[in-house]
Specification:
It is built from 2 helices and 8 strands. The chain is mostly beta strands. It has one domain. Strands 1-3-6 form a 3-stranded antiparallel β-sheet.
Length: about 140
Amino acid sequence: MPGLILYHTTTRPAAVAILRNGFDDGSTVSRPSVPRGRVWLSDKPLDCNEGAKGDVVLEVTMGLSEADISLFELIEKGKPYREWCIPLEKLTGAIVRLAPANNEMVVLSAGAMARPTSSTSGKKKTRRPRGSPGKGGGGAGG
């Protein structure tokens, strides 16, 4: 069984940190909307229209069932989605990745996020690292 899949919308810098280090306990950032040691998750990707902050959606696959997290659900009438504020310890072992809607985004080793560049022909351009030799003499000396 693949597990329960929920979503977390966040900013790009926070997404990079989460993908590198996992969710934190909130002790390093003041977030009044999230109790310390908990993470907001939803059953569908949310955007600013639903009150989410940021433009990157993470997919969180947990080895839990809805019954396991039912105590943490925040139920509001009229919402077209479901939300939970789940304790970090419940997320132990969860798999976190960019949601499929973010597949065009690339997490770079330096920690920044960027969209792949493409030429007018639709082929991806290959970028040479700085200092590598290539057309125009872009090597170390020039």
